[in-house]
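Why predict the complex rather than its parts? Because the way molecules touch one another can change local conformation, and only a joint prediction can capture that. The input here totals 635 residues.
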Amino acid sequence: MANATTHTPANRGFLEKSGRYGGIFSWIFSTDHKRIGLLYFWCIVAFFLIGSLLGALIRLELFAPGRTIMGAQTYNAAFTLHGVIMIFLFIIPSVPAAFGNMILPLQLGARDVSFPRLNLFSWWLYVIGAAMAVTALFTGGGPPDTGWTFYVPYSVGTTANVSLAAIAVFILGFSSILTGLNFITTIHRLRTKGLGWGRLPLFVWTLYATAWIQLLATPILGITVVLLFVERVLGTGLFDPSLGGDPIMFQHLFWIYSHPAVYIMVLPAMGVISEIIPVFARKPAFGYKAMVISSLAIAFAGSLVWAHHMYTSGMSDTAVMIFSLLTFLVAIPSAIKVFNWLATMYKGSILLDPPMLYALSFILLFSIGGLTGLVLGSAATDVSVHDTHFVVGHFHYTMFGGTGMAFFGAMHYWLPKIYGRMYNKKIATIAWVTIFVGINVVYMSMMVVGVQGMPRRYYDYLPEFTALNRVSTCGAWVLVTGLLMMFVNIFYGTFRGKSVGSNPWGGATLEWTVSSPPPPENFEEEPVVTHGPYDFKKAGVV
Amino acid sequence: MTKHEHIVSYKTIITVWLLLLVLTGVTVGASRIDLGALNIWVALGIAATKSSLVISIFMHMKYESPVFKLFLLIALSVLAIFVGLTLIDVLYR
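Output of the joint prediction:
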């Protein structure tokens, strides 16, 4: 696979494509997977910045006991909004919708996804859902204040605008389902010649496993929010014990989706790490088959553990025991991945470029998140720390330290391919150090203060928790500084950075064989794959 | 995409329709008898039989390629597991 020529600024691949529409319409009505990927990317980044701002404000409020910058009701709305934005508008679509769209067809040697128009429709659904979620803040009885979980009975009784937010989540869910359907079909039908299942890049495998979860679990979220809506509007009593309903059933329905959703968030992130590590260790991925099987095993086993969020809800002890056991089983395929990443790096010629730094920090931070997850997966210890700041620290380690870092890693790894320009690596490295320090200070303090007994979602706290809350808030300032530095650098690099060739990192997968930015139809002629995805020697890039 | 047109006979369609009507009657009848913990299994059993008939005959899954049948089986198995694990809580509470 020979390297193609670099596009000059006058010939900017798909970015220059002149179609039926011009200007903004050439983007929002484009069916090109790369353009749709970029639409998702910039929307997701915008929502991430809004969510981060809210997170920083929440931390500022918790700087001292009592009122600091906002009232209690505003605080409830702020953490609900922070959760809804970060979960539904940032993390869930982050890697699969943005980088999956940009990179999947390129890695498969395809011209586009199987259903390009459906792909554009998915993005529109995402935008409509997002717009409705934002509208819910300023209409009806005020911004939703239930937390992102919409638990009954509070969500049924509150006068806040929960109904519109629930419909928004329903629409966002459909966006996710359609993307999953598109990816499954694309991976089955559009692999180029020679690209058998055993030669698929690991990122593709994780997108495949994720797409199945999106397809099978997301409809249950749709049903759940519809039932909540019906309950609020008609008062049917589905979750009301006095009318024969069951409030715990809501929690089951909610988590049947929302726990597998954790793997929608983290599996593609693991795929990103599995791409970055072999390239920057200059070694083939260790245990390819084990990595593939572990991706599928995480998708399957991860779908069976939802009720570990409900140990203290009053569900049966039998269920607590069984879900605890199942939860521990998920640790096995996750650990296989961690060990295989480490084995890939063993005796490799490691290059510490920014994507690799993010990948390395993913392994550490995700492991901390995963291991503290076992504390919560074990029913006995969970009862003590349930609904404390320990839980908040734990899931931020997995979601931000895990998926967030992988998203940033993917940004530094693939945006030079997509835009054909390189960011400033020195600033990227400084930003990475700042973010890494910030994350650990914010969330480690939260976990400690949680073990000490500080509940989550409380507006006020006892004076003995002040010191660690202050440390955590200071960490948030460090984190925000790092994030700003990173995004400004990426933004500047994307539009003003130095031009790069087709393969700036020496990757062996198909996306590195086309020019940067890729041509509108991806490949001049149908590529033929003659080697594995991490066979750098046969690819001629060693 | 495979191109095939399978025409189901009126006899089959009407037989399935009558079966669905009978099963609907059974659903209504079963709801009036209290079988304790078996209530849920009977209701789900009848619903599963009815949906199988609709999917296989009316939606032509019976005549599709094995890969589609496999995908459907995966989806239904996952749903069955979701329901089953939820029942571990509900039935043992």
